[in-house]
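3.2 Worked example (two chains)
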Amino acid sequence: MIDTQIRQLRSTLFWSFFALGIGLLILAALQTFYGLWPLRRVRQDVAAIRSGAKTRIDENFPVEVRPLTEEINQLLAHSEEQAEEARRHAGNLAHALKTPLTVITNAATARSPDLPETVFREAIVMRRQVDHHLARARAIGRRASVHARATVWDSLQSVQRAVDRLYEKVTVDIAGDKTAQVRVERQDLDEMLGNLVENAAKYGGGRVFVTVERQAPMIDIIIEDDGEGIPKQQRETLFQRGARLDTDKPGTGLGLAIVRDVAEIYGGTITLEESEDLGGLLARLSLPAG
C-alpha cells in the first residue's frame, strides 16, 4: 500500500516537474523572442537605411533601446553633415578656380602679349584658393577625432623657435597657463598659432607677447604686437581671403582667413582688438578647453 502511494507520488512529481520545465522553456523562448524584438527592428531599420528606403531609425522604441537608436541617428546626421560639407567645399573650390582658369584660357586664345604675366598672376590666385581649401579640408577631416588634444604651451614654443629663426630682430615672449590643453589636433593648432605669431612678427615693431588664459570652457590665446595697429573698421576685412593691408611685404593674404575657418571648425573664435600694453594689434584666439 505504501509502495503504491510512493510510486504515485513519484509519478505526480515527475510529470509536475516535467510540465514546469516545459513551461519555463516556453516562457524563456517567448521572453527572448519578444525581448529581442526591438533589436531585430533596429537591424531591419539599419538594413532599410543601407538600401535607401529610410534615412533614420524610428523613434517608437522601448526606453531600454532608445539610447542606442538615438546614437545611431546622431551618427547618421553627423555623416550626412560631413558629406554635405565636403560637397559644398568641393563646389566652393571649383567655383574659386573657375574664374582664374577662364582668364588664362581667354588670354591664351587671344594670344595676349602679357600672357606670362597673366598666367603668373592667376596661378598665385589659384594657389591661394587651393591652400585655403586644403587647410579647411584637413581640419574637417581631423575634427572627427573626439580624442584630439593639444597642449598650447608646447605648440607656442615650437612656433616661437620657428619665428626666432625667420625674424632675428623680433622678440617673442610667452606667458600664462603652461598646462592648458585645447580640443584641437596639434597640426591645426600649430598652423593657427604660426599664422598669428608670424603676422605679429612681420607687421609689428619687434616685440610680440603671447598670453595663455583659461576662460572656462575656453582657452584664450592672446597675441599682441607693438606695431601701428589696424583701424577698427578695417579689421574685419582682414578675414577675407586674399585681403592684405600691406602689399609691400610677402604673403598670400590667407593667414587670418585660414585661422578663422579652422577655429570655427573646432568650435572656436578669433577676434582682432587693440593692445593696451604694446599699442599694436591684439589677436584673441579662443578654443574649447581639452
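3.2.1 Second chain
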Amino acid sequence: MSSRIKLTISYNGSRFLGLQNQSHTDNTVMGTLTNALRRLHIADTPVASGRTDSGVHAFRQVLHLDLPPHWDNLVRLRRALEHQLPLSIRIRRIERADPDFHARYSARRRVYRYILSPNPPNPFEADLVTFCEPPDLDKLNTALRLFEGEHNFEFFKKSGSDVKHYVRTVYKARAYRHKNYIVLYFEANGYLRSQIRMMTDAALKTAYGDMRLHQLREQLERKVRHTTDLAPASGLYLSKIIY
C-alpha cells in the first residue's frame, strides 16, 4: 500500500527552465526530480504547491507524492534521493502526510521574497539577485501597499495564463533593508503568472518616479495598462508555503 509524503525542497533556478515538466526538455526542476525518483523505482509524479518561472529560485517549495511500499524508511530515501539530485536541488525535509494532503490545494498562503542589490554588479550574484539603483524605500512601500487586499489582478499578469479568474488576496506587501540588500516581501493566497515580477517592476518604477502613484492605482483598478514589464527572474524566491 502506498503512503503519501510531503517533500520540501530548495533550488537554485538559474540553470532550470522553470519548475514544471515540459515536453521538449527535462531541464526543469520537476523533470530533474522526476528522473531521480524513477531511478529509485518511484513511479508517482510529484505535485508542487505552485509553479515557478525559468530562473526563479525557491527556499521552501513543497510537493507531495505517493511512495511504493518498499520505501518505508524516509531517512534512507532522503539520502538516496539527494545522491541522485544535482547540488542545485536540495531536500530540506521529507515527512509523512495525510492521504488527502495536497501540496497545491491544501495551501492557504504563499510567501515570496524579491531580493534587490543596490551595490555594484558582480558576477557571483548575477543569477541570484537583481542589481538596481537604490530606490526610495518610503515611496517603494507606499506603492507596494496599494497591492494589499483583495483585487482583480488581470492587468498584473503575463499573457498566456490559463486561469479562469484573476482575483487574489495579498495579505502583505512590504520592502525592507537586510544587510546590504533590499528585500520585497509578498504574502498572498495565490498569484497569477509572473504577477510578482510585474508588481515589483511597477512598484520600482513608481519609487524611481518613472510612474505616478495614480497610474499604478489606475492599472490595479484595470482602467489603463501603463506597464507590462517584468522584473528579472533572478531576484525572485519562493520562500514559504503556509498550510
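3.3 Remarks
Residues 3-96 form a domain with the Alpha-Beta Plaits fold (CATH 3.30.70.580).
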